Amino acid sequence: AMTSTNDIRRSFLDFFGGEGHMRVPSAPLVPQNDPTLMFVNAGMVPFKNVFTGLETRPYSTAVSSQKCVRAGGKHNDLDNVGYTARHHTFFEMLGNFSFGDYFKERAITLAWNLITKEWGISPDRLIVTVYHTDDDAFALWKKIAGLPDSRIIRIATKDNFWAMGDNGPCGPCSEIFYDHGEHIPGGPPGSPDEDGDRFVEIWNLVFMQYEQEAGEIVRDLPRPSIDTGMGLERIAAVLQGKHDNYEIDLFQTLIGETAEMTKTDATGPMSASHRVIADHLRASGFLVADGVLPSNEGRGYVLRRIMRRAMRHAHLLGAKDPLMYRLVPSLVSQMGGAFPELTRAQPLIEETLKLEETRFRQTLETGLRLLDEATAGMGAGAVLPGETAFKLYDTYGFPLDLTEDALRRQGLSVDKTGFDTAMAAQKAAARAAWAGSGAQADEGVWFDIAEESGATEFTGYNSDTAQGEV
Ligand code: ATP
Ligand code: MG
Ligand code: MG
Ligand code: MG
């Protein structure tokens, strides 16, 4: 019988629990200890202060399945969703952690035993990477896993060196890749076509062994630590004999529902729409369950972008009425057992999705018609004027990334500078109107402050600072 995604999560937690790790429930998606970060985007985030020594816990090793969202800031996988086999906006990161307890040897031994012995993955399908100078890790992989030199790849880029920021713990990484087979395009890690989907990174081990100050390594950590992260959906694909994350049980159920509701084929040319809807439904449901509501700024705007983008895809599938909220019961029945907050929030999630979709549908069609007119006659490679994208945003409620996503199939893009200029012009006009309204001088000051503090919370879709480095 096929191992379900729920079973795989449990198996991971049981394996490390059996090895003395404290089982720690997932923290909420809204970071509790890090104002620079928009959403928790890795399993180690809730443990940051434990790694730096600011906080102590009554255990020195832990295991978790952490809810993550990567839809903005430094790690933004939004544009990958629907188009790669391995990226989601919301996913679970399975992780084991050592806070100054065990180090490389035990971390590699545990990882290897779990995937090849407990789970029975063939070693022939596995390739690992190490940081180019990390001879210890290279030797340990050889000794523990018996891998030939050719399948332990030294990587010199920052991909294989992790740092918490400019100050604090850092160290080399080792990534484990699964080879899904020759029939899939893509090369091994470190090769020019490594971004293909043949060799999929399943597990990232981080060996924290140095301390940085102002971006320079200044000393060895007295007690080196371990942080690992494995995508639950990626390992589920491997263990369920699928190449693609969207073919695992969980997604097949959700996608089966959208296919049924819209009477469309989930595997044909519309498959990206089905995937986007299923993915964004999870992100939306979990974000609402953790207290985020759609709005026009900060976290709420990221959520609104995710919801509206999915809603355009529902429209593409021909849905005549709000659709997203009708998928919630299926999501809850699959994931509510592991995440009771999802079950508790079910009515709120349904209501929020229904309201947002009802509202957005009032302008969606007109906006899409305008977009069609504006792009009529444009050939691949052409650029939509920023003014038009801004009008879609301002009048029809189209987030910029939704417009970009809509143009993607035709090979068109948006003039983002023009969009920003139009946005700035509108803000200046609003401010001038405010100044001329007879409002008191301090109210004008308040307006500026509000705008600035808004900007600290959310500094843009592509900003490198919106999410702290993890
Ligand atoms: P990739 O190179 O494939 O984008 P990554 O190196 O960015 O992955 P890490 O930051 O190392 O990923 O995260 C640890 C693990 O979490 C990865 O090995 C992968 O299994 C999983 N993971 C990362 N990003 C995603 C995502 N967007 N969707 C699903 N799983 C993910
Ligand atoms: Mg990535
Ligand atoms: Mg990677
Ligand atoms: Mg990685």
UniProtKB/TrEMBL annotation:
Residues 3-470 form the Alanyl-transfer RNA synthetases family profile domain. One of its GO terms (molecular function) is alanine-tRNA ligase activity. It catalyses: tRNA(Ala) + L-alanine + ATP = L-alanyl-tRNA(Ala) + AMP + diphosphate. The keyword Cytoplasm applies. Its EC number is 6.1.1.7. Binds 1 zinc ion per subunit. GO terms for biological process: alanyl-tRNA aminoacylation; negative regulation of DNA-templated transcription. It is an enzyme of class 6 (ligase). Its cofactor is Zn(2+). One of its GO terms (cellular component) is cytosol. It is found in: Cytoplasm. Keywords: Aminoacyl-tRNA synthetase, ATP-binding, Cytoplasm, Ligase, Metal-binding, Nucleotide-binding, Protein biosynthesis, RNA-binding, tRNA-binding, Zinc. Catalyzes the attachment of alanine to tRNA(Ala) in a two-step reaction: alanine is first activated by ATP to form Ala-AMP and then transferred to the acceptor end of tRNA(Ala). Also edits incorrectly charged Ser-tRNA(Ala) and Gly-tRNA(Ala) via its editing domain. This is Alanine--tRNA ligase. It comes from Sphingosinicella microcystinivorans. The gene is alaS. The chain holds residues 3 to 472 of 884 of the full protein.
